[in-house]
Design the sequence.
């Protein structure tokens, strides 16, 4: 579900608690990673985004999830 916040009135929606800090933080992390590589072409950017999203989603158990990928693919 996509929600929005009108920053003219609030930075955090008082009814839903929705804010943009997570998105802005993600954008900054990705820009820093791209700078490390001194730029990436479009295909590699998409892969970097997918990898970053996967690692963030599995951050509590990323090592175990990576092992599961290797076990399942054998």
Sequence:
């Amino acid at each position: 579900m996509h929600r929005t916040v009108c920053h003219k009135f609030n930075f955090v929606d008082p009814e839903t608690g929705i804010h943009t800090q997570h998105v802005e933080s993600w954008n900054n992390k990705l820009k820093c990673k791209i700078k490390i590589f001194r730029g990436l072409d479009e295909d590699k950017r998409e892969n970097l985004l997918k990898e970053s999203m996967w690692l963030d989603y599995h951050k509590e158990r990323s090592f175990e999830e990576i092992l599961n990928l290797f076990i399942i693919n054998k």
In short: The mean pLDDT is 81.
